[in-house]
Design goal:
This protein has 362 residues and is α/β, with parallel strands linked by helices. The chain has three domains: 206 residues, Rossmann fold (3-Layer(aba) Sandwich); 60 residues, Adenine nucleotide alpha hydrolases-like domains (SH3 type barrels); 80 residues, Beta Barrel (Elongation Factor Tu (Ef-tu), domain 3), CATH 2.40.30.10. Helix content is 25%, strand content 30%. The strands form three sheets. A six-stranded antiparallel β-barrel has the order 12-15-14-13-16-17. Strands 3-2-1-4-7 form a five-stranded parallel β-sheet, with helices on both faces. A four-stranded mixed β-sheet has the order 9-8-11-10, with no helix packed on it. Strand 2, helix 2 and strand 3 form a beta-alpha-beta unit. Helix 1 packs across helix 6. The termini are far apart.
Length: 362
């Protein structure tokens, strides 16, 4: 179908990446509609001052006016609270370290937004993510890493299905961030110099500990040196720490710093060890829950494939290993031990530059 006959709903965050994406799509001839997703308002958990949704919506609307496209606003607040915020609290209450951006993309941006856009007449959706969609000779979509290695966001997008990916465009995926900034100035966008947001996708830049303590009560427990088994301090709750954490433990003054190496939720104990690479937080075999592959037909081909790599956190360099299936469980077995694999985070699998899928670290 010619681009002139296709309508694309672009998810506008108020930031520069999605704004430039809209301009590029319009230049390419698509009928572009800018859509702001309102996901959070009110002063729940004392966050109103840290959630500038009104400013972001005004910026998104100003972008649409500048480039001459229709502007819409969709309210997904209830769904965000049900699907993302509750997940966030539930995971932390289990002593895990969740990734709300992954859940936000899975449940809201590429599920709810896509479904709503199609109902409103869209043929496709687009976002300002740094990722590349490429179709093979059979028309099957594949997701590749963004060209800007420092901004690549495929880690957060591994839960997309082949069907969702086929309906999605990533207009800036083959650009470097400085190029995007230059384009924003060329298009004379009102938010061209707006700083990038570094916060949680549904709230913004927040104090996570303060946020959690609004719902999860403090529960004092012991901090124990895993090597000596001696108590070295107390904590406010095992939920509020993560594997590999150094700061905020209140056990400073050590010649070699302490790091969180293990957590015992039942006994409410945090175990610490000396050194950034303490052996207690190094793992080669990592079990995964909810394994998702963008192309589910590939599972048999991927098992024991020696060309795979995986990341255990955002901006973690993918390391070589194999995907293993045994006793009805999936594991990724790395060639070299990985530091601080935290339960609740995502392990994302790659082959060369292609993101194949991933799962939740158990």
């Amino acid at each position: 179908m010619p681009k002139q006959n296709q309508t694309v709903f672009v998810g506008l965050s108020g930031g520069v990446d999605s704004a430039v994406s809209s301009c590029l799509l319009k230049e390419q001839g698509y009928n572009v509609v800018g859509v702001f997703m309102k996901n959070w308002s009110g002063d729940d958990y004392g966050l109103q001052a840290e959630c500038p949704w009104e400013e972001d919506q005004k910026d998104a609307e100003a972008v649409c006016k500048q480039i001459g496209i229709e502007f819409r606003s969709l309210n997904f607040e209830k769904e965000y609270r049900d699907k993302v915020v509750e997940y966030f609290f539930n995971e932390y209450s289990k002593g895990r370290t969740p990734n709300p951006d992954v859940m936000c993309n899975k449940e809201i941006k590429f599920k709810l937004f896509l479904e709503k856009a199609k109902c409103l007449g869209a043929d496709l959706i687009a976002t300002g993510h740094y990722a590349i969609r490429m179709n093979d000779e059979f028309g099957n979509p594949h997701m590749l890493k963004g060209m800007d290695a420092n901004k690549d966001q495929t880690y957060f997008l591994y839960n997309l299905t082949k069907e969702q990916l086929s309906k999605t465009l990533f207009p800036i995926g083959d650009l470097q961030k400085p190029e995007v900034r230059k384009l924003a100035e060329r298009f004379n966008l009102p938010n061209a110099k707006k700083p990038d947001s570094q916060g949680i996708c549904f709230i913004g830049e927040i104090n996570v500990l303060k946020f959690l303590m609004k719902r999860i009560p403090e529960k004092e427990g012991d901090i124990i040196d895993i090597d000596t088994q001696k108590k070295v301090g107390t904590h406010k709750g095992v939920y509020f720490s993560t594997i590999g954490q150094r700061g905020g433990l209140g056990v400073g003054g050590q010649e070699v710093p302490y790091y969180v190496v293990q957590k015992d939720l039942e006994k409410n104990i945090i175990y610490v060890g000396h050194g950034h690479n303490h052996s207690a937080m190094l793992k080669t075999e990592i079990e995964m829950e909810n394994l998702h592959l963008i192309n589910i037909d590939l599972e048999t081909d991927l098992l024991n494939d020696a060309s795979l790599r995986a990341s255990i956190r955002y901006r973690h360099k993918p390391e070589t290993g194999k995907l293993i299936h045994k006793e009805n469980k999936y594991f990724f077995v790395f060639d070299k031990p990985q530091r601080a694999a935290s339960s609740g985070q995502s392990l994302v699998i790659y082959r060369d530059t292609e993101c194949l899928g991933g799962g939740i670290i158990k």
